[in-house]
Design brief:
Na+/H+ antiporter like fold; ion transport; single chain; 414 residues; 15 helices; mainly alpha
Length: 414
């Protein structure tokens, strides 16, 4: 998820969607390869080591520092962008949100049903949220690499679809992966989040309390401390700690939020997401036959590339029939290309897999492999689909450029 910047501002290569997607892929491959070498067992044991602070009643594993701690920064960025789109962006009205919303619903329901069809009657059916997610960073990276010639409306539709998909993922994490709730900790987290949001108003350009840039640093420092406290109390409450990042992203004032994202985005793209992809892909490939693999493996493997493709395409077509005059509607080939990109689950799907199967390490490892393989199939298919559409639009532009201007003869244009 990236806030849009002009080329003059986009100075760091780590803000590039292509670079972000490449780093994610390299990190995941490295994690999978290293886990299956001689150092794999030692690295896996290290990821299971715990940091304990008795005075704070705080205990967390290295693996959860990555998935619960570092990934909260990524979800903060997601929430800021989501709020921006809802206020002033592509989702700021019902008419704008209608088409991608219906496509997003299809892209959640169909993969979930595909997964359930493979796992019905088993103890792994609770993993149905895993194939419902779309990795926006990876999807936009593939689009940037293979689809630079596509019209802006295709990218806008993909962005809106992915933003809504992220919203669904946030709700799933909040409601389906929360247990043993401690309401006192939730109350303390809510206080920290509320004060964090209030202080951010002091940093707005139009605020009567706006301070000189140097004088803002004490406020920013306090906000960072409050953000850490919000995360700590959320983690202690039993709610997944990444929800703290979401809440902070929603309450921060828009302009300070945009500046925060601009500062954090290179760290998220270049450090946080690759570290998470590396740690999530630290899986020893099981020495089992295909028939011995869990139904969850096959459910994810099919649901990500196929379920997403069918769900988003059908949802987009239904939305197009309902809102025929909506300017955001895509042609069927463009819709298929976007739907193929939606099958790239990766980051959020890996997180969902960890949450769904945290009590079953063997199935969780197979789930990681399925997410990686399913996303790889989606990447390959979407690269072909997007390239074909880009080639189509290049031909149209060349044909249009050869047409003579009105009132001029072909010989004059030649």
């Amino acid at each position: 998820m990236t806030i849009q910047h002009t080329d003059a501002v986009r100075t760091s290569p780590l803000r590039s969607e292509r670079v972000a997607a490449g780093l994610l892929l390299i990190a995941a491959i490295a994690g999978l390869v290293i886990a299956n070498t001689a150092v794999g067992p030692a690295l896996l044991a290290f990821m299971g080591d715990h940091l304990t602070i008795i005075a704070l009643d705080f205990d967390i594993s290295v693996s959860h520092i990555v998935s619960d701690g570092l990934l909260a920064v990524f979800f903060f960025i997601v929430a800021v962008e989501l709020r921006r789109e809802l206020v002033i962006g592509e989702l700021n009205s019902l008419s704008k949100a209608a088409l991608p919303a219906i496509a997003a619903i299809g892209g959640v329901l169909v993969p979930a049903l595909v997964f359930i069809s493979f796992t019905a009657g088993t103890d792994v059916v609770d993993g149905w949220p895993i194939p419902t997610a779309t990795d926006i960073a990876f999807a936009l990276g593939v689009l940037a690499i293979f689809g630079s010639a596509l019209p802006t409306r295709v990218r806008v539709f993909l962005m809106a679809l992915a933003v809504l998909d992220d919203l669904v993922a946030i709700l799933i994490i909040a409601f389906f992966f929360t247990s043993d709730v401690r309401f006192a900790s939730i109350g303390f987290a809510a206080i920290a989040i509320t004060v964090f949001g209030a202080l951010s108003r002091l940093l707005r350009a139009r605020s009567p309390w706006v301070l000189a840039r140097r004088a803002q640093w004490p406020i920013i420092t306090v906000m960072i401390v409050l953000a850490a406290l919000a995360w700590y109390f959320t983690y202690q409450s039993g709610v997944h700690a990444t929800i703290a990042g979401v809440a902070l992203g929603f309450v921060i004032s828009r302009r300070p939020g945009g500046r925060a994202v601009h500062a954090l985005e290179p760290w998220s793209n270049g450090v946080i997401l690759p570290i998470f992809a590396f740690s999530a892909a630290l899986v020893m490939i099981p020495d089992v036959s295909l028939s011995e693999l869990s139904p969850a493996f096959w459910g994810i493997l099919v649901a990500l590339p196929v379920g997403k493709l069918i769900g988003i395409t059908v949802g987009g077509l239904v939305g197009g029939l309902i809102f025929r005059r909506q300017s955001g509607a895509l042609k069927l080939p463009d819709l298929v290309a976007v739907a193929a990109l939606g099958g790239i689950g990766f980051t959020v799907s890996l997180l969902m897999n960890e949450l769904a199967f945290r009590g079953n390490r063997e199935v969780a490892d197979e789930g990681v492999l399925a997410v990686l393989l399913g996303s790889a199939v989606a990447i390959a298919f979407s690269a072909v689909a997007v390239s074909l559409r880009a080639r189509h639009y290049r031909r149209l532009r060349r044909a249009h450029s050869r047409q003579p201007e009105p009132g001029r003869s072909p010989s004059a244009t030649a």
